[in-house]
Amino acid sequence: MRGEALADHAARRAESVTRIRGEAVTGLDLRGDEPVPEVKGVTDPWWRAENSLIALHRGEAVGLGVPQCLEAHVYEGLRA
Predict the structure, then answer these.
(1) How many helices (H) and strands (E) does the chain have?
(2) Do 74 and 20 contact (CB within 8 A), yes or no?
(3) How many Å apart are CA 33 and CA 38, to the nearest integer?
(4) How many CB atoms lie within 10 A of CB 41?
(5) Rounded to the nearest 5 degrees, what angle is found at the Cα of 48, between the Cα atoms of 80 and 22?
């Protein structure tokens, strides 16, 4: 499943979606979560936990050197 398809799937099924921007993204605790290998990207990886998915969007921040462009989308309340 590609990143765009996974984002659409998660957004339709999540109880809540939280967007985190800028330096706050670096504070996300991903310990206990596992990477989603099907959508593994150099700058835009996805992580999953029991009832959540987290998409990290770092492309512009890394490519242009502007950390304020960091963004994460946290999809919570996902049921199997």
Answers:
(1) 2, 5
(2) yes
(3) 15
(4) 13
(5) 135
Contact 44, 58 (CB under 8 A): yes
What tens digit of pLDDT does each residue of 4-32 get?
889 999 999 999 999 999 989 989 999 99
Q: For residue 40, give the 3-state DSSP assignment.
A: coil
Q: Nearest-CA neighbor of 18 among 78, 75, 77, 68?
A: 75
Report the predicted TM-score, pTM, of the whole model to 2 decimal places.
Answer: 0.87
User: If residue 74 lies in a helix (H) or strand (E), which one and from where to where?
Assistant: strand 71-76
Residue labelled with tokens 């309340």:
77
Q: What are the sequence ranges of the domains in the chain?
A: 3-76
C-alpha span between 28 and 69 (Å, rounded): 15
Whether 60 contacts 71, CB under 8 Å? no
